[in-house]
Amino acid sequence: MNGRSARDGMRWIGTKRRGIKSGSLTDSRVPAVRLIFVRRVSRWAEEVARALPEAVLAEALASPTMRQSLATVLARYSDAREPSLEVLLEEAIGRGVAAKTELRKQAGGFKPTNWVAAHLGISRQAVDKRRRTGKLLAVEERKGEFAYPLCQFTPNGTLPGLEETLAAFRVDDPWERLAALVNPSPALGGTAVVDVLRQARSHTERERAISVVREFLQ
User: Fold this and answer.
1) Residue 197 near residue 165, CB atoms below 8 Å
2) CA angle 151, 154, 157 (to 5 degrees)
3) Rounded percentage of the chain residues whose pLDDT exceeds 90
4) Are the C-beta atoms of residues 172 and 162 closer than 8 Å to each other?
5) Could you tell me where the beta strands, DSSP code E, fall in 12-155?
6) Nearest by Cα to 195 from 155, 145, 152
7) How far does CA 95 lie from the centroid of its chain?
8) Alpha-carbon span 32 to 37, nearest angstrom
């Protein structure tokens, strides 16, 4: 045995003594991604074994190849985990709540009718009239109780061009309107409509923002 063969033999003996077979997934030289993949697949296999009826597992084991076994399991497991209408509805509601929470934050919060009346120096009835005629944006939080996004107000009143902007909408849903107002608009260089209205120095600049909501959902 030459020197290299002897060294190779000693390396193999050392590996065997430590109980590690070269190239196995316990070998320290195996990339971490392979180990992570094996662990994830193992957890998935345990989940499948718990979820599927024994008859289905037996059918998969009776397949002549591993590929066919996996195909059987994947098909039946997918059917078994098909979400119900109730689950889909709950998920949709959850997404809707999350979206409204984000819009509320982007709008700077909501204010009640009393606050709006005091801020504008008008009565509650006058505030409600402006809401009903589309001159103020509000969402109904509880039956008969409305809240007003703060983003439509300035320290001295309402945003310049607010009434024209709200009148330009062709959608009625207040949440959709709020989304169009506070989300960054590609047509405005990534600036939100309310920010353009707040910073505009001319009617032409405000008209750019109004044109965005006029085309919203068209």
Assistant:
1) yes
2) 120
3) 33
4) no
5) 110-112, 139-142, 145-149, 153-154
6) 152
7) 7
8) 9
Buried b (16+ CB within 10 A) or exposed e, 178-197: bbbbbeebeebeebbbbbbb
Contact between 217 and 171 (Cβ < 8 Å) = yes
Highest mean pLDDT among 48-57, 70-79, 92-101, 141-150: 141-150
In the sheet where 139-142 sits, what is the strand order? 110-112, 145-149, 139-142
Residue 88 has pLDDT above 90, yes or no: no
Contacts of 11 (CB under 8 A, 6+ apart): none
pLDDT tens digit sequence for 153-181: 999 999 999 999 999 998 889 998 999 89
Give the N- to C-terminal CA distance of the chain in Å, as an integer.
Answer: 83
Look at strands 145-149 and 139-142 and give their pairing.
Answer: antiparallel
Q: Do you know the residue count of the chain?
A: 218
pLDDT of residue 118: 97
- CA–CA gap between residue 183 and residue 165 (Å, rounded): 15
pLDDT in tens, 113-159: 999 999 999 999 999 999 999 999 999 987 778 999 999 999 999 99
Interatomic CA distance for residues 3 and 140, integer angstroms: 86
Domain coordinates in residue numbering, the chain: 3-80, 91-214
Contact assessment for residue 26 and residue 18, using Cβ atoms and an 8 Å cutoff: no
Q: Return the closest-CA partner of residue 184 out of 170, 166, 172, 196.
A: 196
